[in-house]
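User: For a reading group we're discussing how well predicted structures match intuition. Take Y4yA family PLP-dependent enzyme. Before you show the prediction, I'll give you the sequence so everyone sees exactly what went in.
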Amino acid sequence: MEPPLAALLADGPFLHSLADGLGSPLNVLLPEAVATNAARFRAVYRRHRLTGRVYFAHKANRSGALLRRLAAEDPAAVGVDVASTEELRHALGCGFTGDRIMATGPKDAAFLWLAARVGATVNLDSPGELERLSALVRAHGLGRVAVLVRLSGFEHTTGNGGAGTRLLSRRSRFGTPVRDMEELLSALEHNADIVEFAGAAYHLDTTGVDEKARALEQCVLFMDECRARGLAPHTLDIGGGFGVGYVAEAEDWERWTTALTEAVLGVRPPMTWRGHGYGLRNEGGTVRGATALYPAYRPTAGPGYLDEILSLPAPVLGRPAATLLLEHLHDLYIEPGRSLVDQCGLSLARVLDVRPADTDAGHHLVHLAMNAGDMSLEEHGVLVDPVLVPRDETAATGDGEAVGVYLTGNLCLEGDLITRRLVFLPRLPQAGDLLAFANTAGYAMDFRAHHAQRQPVARTVAVERRGDTWRWCPDEDYWPITPMGGAVG
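Assistant: Thanks. Here is the predicted 3D structure of Y4yA family PLP-dependent enzyme, as structure tokens, for the group to look at:
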């Protein structure tokens, strides 16, 4: 945890005052932190002398405060990536003009029409999507639309000559396979009066920097071929996936994953509810499967990971990726989501009840005024222990040793577990205490929020530090151009 988020977590009375007034669960955001993250990404651009734009992947968080804070940044430097009609409408309402918006993801007719109408760049996944966009533009007399074409199925041969090993990038349901690009190029040429072909893009669901560098190089080669056919692409969008380091020390992560394997084998007590293996299973004394977990320790993440990609020599052309972009005078677009909202918020949950668990290990169940839809770190395989924020520090009890608890939600479902694993806290919580889940702004605090059993969905507030106090306002009332209102902590 970096200083702004750590300082917020250290102010227990302020957090309790927020939860008392606004209920549990509650999401708390730091809008200034997202601007800091954008600046860090832009610093990597400057280091490599690159031009282009950082597009925030809006799907990572529904907040208006974060979007409005980014809208106040340099228009040439920061934009927003939207993946639905409602996200597009939200971005426009938060101050983004159409020329700063990238439309991605599956697109229905309404999404394509509105994107074209406001002048957004459309990131196309197939020749069919291009034809549907072109038909809408013609039918409604809209202006020419800037488009990127997203590619997939990249191939690369290692070794000398034709005797090397052929490598294929992992499959993706996004984009047109490179082997089918002839149909795509023909569609671009056929619709040149309707669309302005701005460049290429890719989306790879991998942490492998080598694989992403290969994809970048092949997109550059693809755009070379486009130029040879009389087209004039000038932009390469390498998507997102820059990651977040949730755990500070590699040893902590390695120790836990090793212990999970031992627990699955039965050589140590279970570490999870009902022996859940996170993808691992015991088959006759042998561990099978693979852990379905986010790599919580990342040696490089966010801007550092982008820097690593840009510094890696391309496998065929042999020059760093940044050099290829400079040589071809290409702009670089990126679409960070999780990494752009790193350190930008936390989720609070009130402790409702504490009672012994039905196990022989002396563990407890801690029932929270929250459910698994409100805080979905577990669903995304992110394992982060919450921070205990006592209601009354003087009433704290315990012998100083950590206690193991399972965190359960407020739905009448056996499967409503906030954590499937044993969580260790410095002492046993009491009813009225808060648990604060740090760094939940990326895909965790509202990605699956719902009104099941008419339980309240978490409200969201924006906070900022003014001198020695915190100020807050509802997420929907935050604007970066006016002083933050609300109560003083």
